[in-house]
Design brief:
228 residues; alpha/beta; Rossmann fold; 6-stranded mixed sheet; 30% strand; globular
Length: 228
């Protein structure tokens, strides 16, 4: 069953008098439980596609449907609410709140959702344990390594029980061992919680673990392959 559908997505940026077509008619479906890598050279449109699917950017043309909601029809406030309750994000730069502890960073999304405190505490502790950080939950980002911060970011992305997680180059700043560990954690969470993961990546380690690899070139899908 398809959870995410894009139809004819285009995105055009204007640089002075020149138009740059970042996406050029992207149509694809993402089904329940997918673990998908979107790959391609720099400038191929990977991050733009993720940002539009996640409602962080609007397309110049085409549609994105998530479930039965066409998010391209939503206004800014509706998009904020929709993202809060349906989408998790993992960014290359972590984007943790520096004054909050690991546990407080994970709880932040649930706080915005106005979840009961007992539920927030239980979910945050469970997720931090799942990513191997139960002994780091009271530390702030500056007290943790890059790999630890990225694991906090994964736990935070899952805290709201989103339908899917968008991960933009999540291993780019990590050493190989840490990256493999993080990918194994995400694959386990994908299997156990059924959360869809969609990666934008250049990293062969991510590509090797993905069950589907979608290749973009010049804003178009040129290959869509199922693996293992």
């Amino acid at each position: 069953m398809s959870i995410i559908k894009t139809q004819g997505l285009t995105k055009i940026y204007k640089e002075h008098t020149v138009e740059v077509r970042a996406l050029n008619g992207v149509t694809m479906d993402i089904a329940e439980g997918e673990f998908t890598a979107i790959v391609g050279p720099s400038g191929s449109g990977k991050t733009t596609l993720l940002n539009i699917i996640g409602g962080l950017d609007k397309p110049s043309g085409g549609q994105v449907s998530i479930g039965d909601v066409d998010i391209t029809d939503l206004n800014d406030n509706q998009l904020i609410d929709f993202r809060l309750n349906n989408i998790g994000f993992v960014f290359q730069a972590y984007n943790l709140i520096p004054v909050l502890t690991a546990r407080e960073n994970v709880e932040f999304i649930m706080l915005m959702q106005k979840r009961p405190k007992a539920e927030m505490d239980e979910r945050a502790e469970s997720l931090l344990k799942a990513v191997g950080l139960e002994d780091q939950m009271h530390k702030r980002p500056r007290e943790m390594s890059g790999g630890q911060q990225q694991r906090v970011a994964v736990a935070r992305a899952l805290a709201s029980k989103p339908k899917f997680v968008l991960a933009d180059e999540p291993t780019a700043n990590l050493d190989s061992k840490t990256a493999i560990n993080l990918l194994d954690i995400m694959a386990t969470l994908n299997k156990e919680e059924g959360t869809i993961f969609i990666f934008s990546t250049h990293d062969q380690k991510v590509i090797d673990r993905a069950r589907r690899v979608v290749t973009l070139e010049d804003g178009k899908i040129v290959s869509d392959v199922l693996q293992n």
